[in-house]
Write a structure and sequence with these properties.
Number of helices: 6
Strand content: 5-15%
Pfam families: LRR_9 (PF14580)
Distance between the termini: 69 Å
Strand order of the largest sheet: 1-2-3-4-5-6
Organism: Origma solitaria
Number of strands: 10
CATH architecture of one domain: Alpha-Beta Horseshoe
CATH topology of one domain: Leucine-rich repeat, LRR (right-handed beta-alpha superhelix)
Largest sheet: 6 strands, mixed
Structural class: alpha/beta
Protein name: LRC72 protein
InterPro entries: Leu-rich_rpt (IPR001611), LRC72 (IPR042655), LRR_dom_sf (IPR032675)
CATH class of one domain: Alpha Beta
Helix content: 10-25%
Length: about 230
C-alpha cells in the first residue's frame, strides 16, 4: 500500500510498481531522473503535485486506476516535454467523450496513447476542437504548396481555358476546416496581396555634379515595374 522514499536512489531511471494498492506517490518527490514509470493497476485517485517534477519521463503507465479528473491529471503531465508513451485507459476519466482528443491537444509530445498511435488527423481534430480559431488560420495558410487549378489570370497572350474547381467554402470562422487542402491553398492565393518590384537604369540618371554644372541634359527615367500576386 505504501513505499518508503526513494530519495537515496538519485539516478533511478526505471521503476515498476504496478499491480499493488498504492494510493500515495509522495515517495517519488526526488526521483528526477526517472524515464520509465509503471503505476498501472493500483488505487490512485489523484496525482496532483506528485509527478510534475519528472521532466525526463518518456513512458508512463497509469491505466487501471481510479483517476477521475481529466483536467487535473493532464495538467500534472504538461511539463513532461519528453513524454512519448502514455496509458490512461480503464480510469473513470477515460469515459469523457472528448478524452482522447483532449490528451492529444494538451500533451503534444505523446505519440502512443493507450497503446494506439496518435495520427496527424487526430492532432488536426484536436486543434479544431480546442482551438478552432487557430485551426482555421492553419487551414488557410499554404506555404510551400502549389495550386494547379487556374485562377482565370492571363499569361502572355493566352488565357487558361481549364475551368476553375468549385470551392466548398466554410460558412464561418468556427466551422469545420477545408476537406481538401488544395481548397485552402486556392483561397489563400486569391486573397494574397499584390507585390510590386521596380528597377531603374541608374547609368542614365544624372549625378548631382552633372545637374549642378548642367553638362548633361536630364532624360526621363526609364522605370520598369513588375506586379504579381
Amino acid at each position: 500500500r505504501s513505499i518508503p522514499s526513494l530519495s537515496q536512489f538519485r539516478r533511478l531511471r526505471c521503476l515498476w510498481i504496478n499491480n499493488n494498492k498504492i494510493q500515495d506517490l509522495t515517495f517519488l518527490i526526488k526521483s528526477y531522473c526517472l524515464t520509465e514509470l509503471y503505476l498501472n493497476n493500483n488505487e490512485l485517485t489523484d496525482i496532483s503535485g506528485a509527478l510534475k517534477h519528472l521532466c525526463s519521463l518518456q513512458i508512463l503507465f497509469l491505466h487501471s486506476n481510479e483517476l477521475k479528473k481529466l483536467g487535473k491529471t493532464v495538467k500534472e503531465l504538461k511539463g513532461m516535454r519528453s513524454l512519448q508513451t502514455l496509458n490512461l485507459f480503464q480510469n473513470p476519466l477515460a469515459y469523457d467523450p472528448d478524452y482522447r482528443l483532449y490528451v492529444i491537444y494538451f500533451l503534444p509530445s505523446v505519440q502512443l496513447l493507450d497503446r494506439k498511435l496518435v495520427t496527424q488527423r487526430e492532432r488536426e481534430s484536436a486543434l479544431h476542437l480546442f482551438n478552432p480559431k487557430r485551426s482555421c488560420v492553419v487551414q488557410s495558410i499554404a506555404f510551400g504548396k502549389r495550386v494547379d487549378t487556374s485562377l482565370g489570370t492571363t499569361v502572355g497572350s493566352s488565357r487558361c481555358t481549364q475551368p476553375a474547381r468549385r470551392l466548398i467554402m466554410p460558412s464561418g470562422i468556427y466551422n469545420i476546416p477545408f476537406e481538401n487542402p488544395e481548397d485552402a491553398v486556392l483561397v489563400r492565393a486569391t486573397r494574397r496581396s499584390l507585390m510590386e518590384f521596380s528597377s531603374v537604369d541608374w547609368n542614365k540618371v544624372a549625378t548631382c555634379q552633372e545637374r549642378r554644372l548642367k553638362n548633361k541634359a536630364e532624360e526621363p527615367l526609364q522605370k520598369l515595374t513588375v506586379q504579381f500576386r
